Amino acid sequence: MSGGDAWKGNIKARLYERVRERGCDSLTAFAEARPAAPLYALADQLGNDVAAVQVLSGLLAEAEQRKQVTRFVRDVLVRLLSQSLPNGWPAVLDDANRFKVAKALGSWSAYTPETHEERVSQVGDALLANPPPPGWRPLGPDDELLRTLLPDEEA
Amino acid sequence: MNIDQFCVKLEQAHHEAIHGGGNWKLGRTWPDEWNRMIMKALREAEAKAGRMLTRNEVLDIVAERMTDYRIPINFTPGRMR
Asked: Which ipTM value was assigned to this complex?
């Protein structure tokens, strides 16, 4: 993996050049056309010199402008869940599955802006305390359960 | 596995790969962002798991997040002890 190139040159310019080459006028539009795809998959489609965290940063910046940060935060969880639990929420939370859930929730916290840290942690606890139906796989940030747990609050 | 000890070794092992990265947002250099992010990911995963993570579980999480950063994964397991 020649990852070093992802951190050279004008990162933002490269990111948006690639987005435009793929016919989208924003990262948000590019990502919405690929619902629930893991972040690394979004980056791979933009080039192997684009890092998933760069896509993440760009999506957050756009979300801030649109005042849709909470929706962005839900979207990040959706993508992490599809990476960690490709078959959806486990029927049994045995040790191995508990780790997969914890991995997704932990990374969700790490990728969440400070403004939403506490709520994200609470949502994680809520999902563990009252598990969704087995096989639950949110398909996007407008998933009903996620919207209930983490509703939009922006004015 | 003790996450703090792990992160010190991780930083030592990948100093060269991490050093010299470009800025993205908020004016922070991304090594700081990486350190903060991976510590958070590990601690929160531990909290949600309700127990200490095993060595393999820590490596699992770190490898995934390194992929997200496009950091080449060339662990030398012996050096990580």
From this structure: 0.93
